[in-house]
Amino acid sequence: MPNLDPAGSDRPQPGRRWVNLLLGSGVLASIASFIYPALRYIIPPAVAESTSRSVVAAKVGELKPNSGKIFKFGAKPGILVRTRDGGFKAFSAVCTHLNCTVQYRDDLRQIWCACHNGLYDLEGRNVSGPPPRPLEEFAVNVQGEDVVVTRKG
Amino acid sequence: MGGKKEKPDVDFAFKTVSRHSPLATRHSIWALVLLFAAVPGFSDAPKDSCVTCHASLEGDLAKPAQAFATDVHHQAGLSCASCHGGDPNDDSMDAMSPARGFRGAPKRTQIPEFCARCHSDESAMRRFNPKLRTDQLSQYRTSVHGKRLKQGDTKVATCVDCHSVHNILAVSDTRAPVYPTNVASTCARCHADPQYMQGYKIPTDQAAKYQKSVHAETLAQGDTSAPTCTTCHGNHGATPPGVGSVANVCGTCHVFFAQLFDKSPHNAAFAAAGLPGCVQCHSNHEVLHPSDDWVGVGSKSVCGNCHAQGDQGYAAAETMSSDLAKLKDSYHRAEDILNTAERSGMEVSSAKLELGDANEDLVKARVNVHTFRAEEVQKLTDQGVEISQKAHGAGVAALRERDLRRKGLGLSLIFIVLAISGLYWKIRQIESRAGGS
Amino acid sequence: MAAPRSRLLNWLDERFGAGSVEEFLRHKTVPQHRHSIWYYFGGMTLFLFVIQVLTGMLLLLYYRPTPNDAFESVQYVMTQVRFGWLIRSVHSWSANLMIFTAFVHMFSVYFLKAYRKPRELTWISGMLLLFIILGFGFSGYLLPWNTLSFFATKVGTEMAGSIPLIGKWILIFLRGGEEVTGATLTRFFGFHVAVLPGLATVLLAMHLLLVQHLGMSVPPSVERSIAGGKQPARSMPFFPTFLLRDIMGWYAALGVLGALAAIFPWELGTKADAFASAPAGIRPEWYFVFMFQTLKYLPAKILFLEGEFAGLLGFGLAAAVWIAVPFIDRRAGFGRVSRFFTGLGVFALGYIVLMSALSYRHP
Questions:
Q1: Which DSSP letter does residue A104 get?
Q2: Which residue of C has its CA nearest to A74?
Q3: N or C: which end of chain C has fewer CB within 10 A?
Q4: What is the side-by-side strand order in the sheet with A146-150?
């Protein structure tokens, strides 16, 4: 690179103070614009882990026995069922027939799909209608006030 | 009979057991020896002279004895004599005399009654398998096979044609000819043979058509609840349902469609025209995966088979078809843009979740086609389109957010330019000083 | 000199002998001539390497190297972590930029004959660093565990298997098994964050020490011109002049990186599925493409050798010759330009560019 200012010149140049100011502020500002994102980055987000493996589906006490709830699990719906004896079961709510969202029927005490009348029992097994496969089952754990649903395997 | 050393058992038995005539006793003892020594499979079973004797014969006479080991009746402890009568303890030909109760092999026209001797007797069946039905004979008598057999047609199916004989397997055994996945090929043995079926005036292509159907496909994938011949025609009482009843039969599984059809204008219209319900559009044996182009007025549509331009049905078909297409298109556009956003690393899981509802509306709209009223389809497709458009909007927003980062970049670029120009002037300064000194 | 600075230096000098370093730096000069611009590329590569280390360390705070979690953790960084998209995209873009500047640096050194005596070891350590950088690229590419990276790794490691006798063992060593699995991911992660950085540090230290000790090489043509009195021997002080110019270049690189990260963010892709079929047109990253394209043109068998192995052998021999150039190019040792070696370099560069272009024009 050629000398930017060969042997000095008579052209007016910004004063020394201005150059230092320009350099200093430019460098400081640019460094700040690098450090700021890095600092924000290292602070962990509110959601500590990626939600694709586990999620809080409900609060304890939110569901009465013999009732169900649809919750968001990543981009797909899940179904949380509280059985008559008070225990929890969780499954993927995506019907294995044509991907409609299933629901809990407290009259039938089974999981039902409104699209073509498919039925699954409380083990997720496809017991009636067109669904060709059982519902994917998830693991359910109660942690304090939270009912946590986790993908198995 | 002297004490020949090679046959100690005979001598011992002869001396201790015999009360009958010497000849019969010797035969019995020989039979016992042979039984224990020569036929391992039967060494624990009670004596069965039928099997012993027939197994040593040749050709067709030996086949029943050889096959019987696998038979479900044998496993229940029954013997040849249980069905055919006679005396299994007797090794002579007398074992097969009517005096000993021998019934022989039944004539073809007598086979159903032959099996029903036990299978229609509740108290007899209760001793072996209480949950087995005992109405097969009465059902059979109502069937086409049963009626024709009574008239002397020996070509029709009897018990042994479907269940086999002497090596009968339980219905739940996957190798049984009447296990759900085997039923179609069992029926096809006669019904798909044009030469055999000559003179009966019914088609012989049902099996071939059924193999193309979605029912056969599902069954082959292991869902044994999928329909096969006997599901719709009955097994023992096999008879085609008849034009008026077809919809009922389909409706046992396809509940919603049957209910909607019943309330639709097609119900009365089809009945008046003597047309079978579901079968008219979906076929009876060749039930294929339906596709959206069956609805409407295009070349592949079924509506066009009856409806012509100008009538109400034509207009309804056209509307339903275009509504379905609109929803499908809207859904796919939303899906594409959300996938693009996701692949670039944007968070769109909520939008994707909500888009699932639009897919559900599409599925339900296709069910509602069977109301044959365009407004029933439209209310679902309108809902679905609205959801899809909302999801599409979310996708657009996600992509815009991705691009908005340029603004933040712009700011940092300003600082960088500041720093670079500061460096540039600094260098000039230093070098002018260096140059001057 | 301000008082606090000299106090600090004295303190360091008493402990490290830092004074001599400062002395050295103050007197270090950089020759100025028409080819001086190429002097900046070594420092640029080093700067981008530092960027890689910094962004890499930040990514390490969230990345999980298992098949179940790798893709999800990168997705998490991209979508949930504040400025995660920036850090990740900068890391991916900077990797490509660094490999590009490394190649430019290497070719400029080659064509300006800077490898000649006494700088043979600098050349060798530099070539080894180049291979290590390519290793960084190959191992890092698998880490997001998406479809492209999975199949690119599969194809790439498959080629190792074509080497007779030892090929199978090399393949198993690279993959951690017969197939590309989670074991491969663990292994590549280990290479990428521990093994290769360790090797790189050692070689880099050697490379930089040599450069400092031997000073900057002046191209033979310039040397002759100076000796013949046709131009004065000009130089600039390293500190602060050359360094400030270096820093200007580095700032510009940062600007380019930021722009690339924001305008062309690095794709997340779709999670790898070992049982899915490979997508059509699968191709390794651009810096391997010329080798990949060459292999595609080779017939299945050349004489008694399997085609792929013959190709690998060819490249291996070419690399060996290239590394040995300081010892083979006798004329350079005498300060003269060998037409042959310059031509060889033009051929190599042209070959790489042509093969890469062909791959993209005719996938």
A1: E
A2: C72
A3: N
A4: A54-59, A146-150, A137-143, A88-92, A76-82, A67-73
Give the mutation candidate from B336, B344, B431, B437 for the C interface (greatest C CB count, under 10 A): B344
Question: What is the complex's ipTM, to 2 decimals?
Answer: 0.80
Q: Could you tell me if A68 and A62 are in contact, meaning their C-beta atoms sit under 8 angstroms apart?
A: no
Whole-number Å distance between alpha carbons of C282 and C147: 10
Contact A38 C32 (CB under 8 A): no
Q: To which H or E segment does residue A56 belong?
A: strand A54-59
Q: How far apart are CA C52 and CA C101, in angstroms?
A: 14
Q: Between B401 and B29, whose confidence is greater?
A: B401
Residue B4 has pLDDT above 70, yes or no: no
Quick one: pLDDT at residue B18? Answer: 45
Q: Could you say which of A13, A94, A129 has the minimum Cβ distance to residue B428?
A: A13
Q: What is the C-alpha to C-alpha distance for residues C354 and C359, in angstroms, rounded to an integer?
A: 9
Mean pLDDT for B87-107 is: 85
Q: Which residues of C touch A1 (CB under 8 A)?
A: 36-37, 40, 245
Does the distance separating the beta carbons of B420 and A26 come in below 8 Å? Answer: yes
Q: Whose CA is closest to B264, among B376, B379, B365?
A: B376
Separation between Cα atoms, residue C163 and residue C104, nearest integer Å: 30
Q: What are phi and psi of B310, to 5 degrees?
A: 110, -30
Q: Which residues of A touch C80 (CB under 8 A)?
A: 45, 47, 50
Residue B9: predicted pLDDT: 45
Task: Identify the pLDDT of residue B22.
Answer: 52
- The span from the CA of A78 to the CA of A130, in Å, is 20
Average pLDDT over residues C262-284: 84
Q: How many CA atoms lie within 13 A of C163 on its CB side?
A: 16
Residue C221 near residue C230, CB atoms below 8 Å: no
Identity (one letter) of the amino acid at C300? A
Q: Which of residues 217-276 of B touch A (CB under 8 A)?
A: 218, 221, 223, 253-256
Residue B318, pLDDT score: 93
- Find the helix or strand (DSSP H, E) in which C137 lies: helix C120-142
How far is it, in rounded angstroms, from Cα B278 to Cα B241? 13
Lowest mean pLDDT among A74-78, B48-52, C347-351: B48-52
Average pLDDT over residues A113-122: 95
User: Do B90 and B102 touch, CB atoms closer than 8 A?
Assistant: no
Q: Measure the CA–CA gap between C257 and C98, rounded to whole angstroms.
A: 11
pLDDT confidence of residue A5: 55
Out of C37, C82, C236, the one facing A41 most closely (by C-beta) is C82
- Total number of residues shown for chain A: 153
What does the mean pLDDT of chain C come to? 89
In 3D, which of C290, C262, C267 has the Cα closest to residue C354?
C290
Closest alpha carbon within chain B to C258: B409
Question: pLDDT at position C305, please?
Answer: 79
Please provide residue B75's backbone torsions phi and psi, each rounded to the nearest 5 degrees.
Answer: -65, -20
Chain A residues whose beta carbon lies within 8 Å of the beta carbon of residue B425:
13-14, 19, 22-23
B111 falls in which pLDDT band (50, 70, 90)? very high
Beta strands in C211-343 (DSSP E): 234-237, 301-302, 305-306
Domains of chain C with bracketed CATH: 35-270+279-361 (1.20.810.10)
The residue behind tokens 């490290």 is: C16
Exposed (0-12), middle (13-18) or buried (19+): which is B241, by Cβ within 10 Å? middle
B148 with B156: CB under 8 angstroms? yes
Chain B, nearest residue to C146 by Cα: B343
Q: What is the pLDDT of residue B437?
A: 40
Highest mean pLDDT among C58-67, C286-295, C303-312: C58-67
> In this model, does residue B96 exceed pLDDT 80?
yes
**Phi/psi class of residue A133: alpha, beta or left (left: φ > 0; alpha: ψ in -120 to 50)?**
beta
| Whole-angstrom distance, CA of residue C3 vs CA of residue B418 | 30
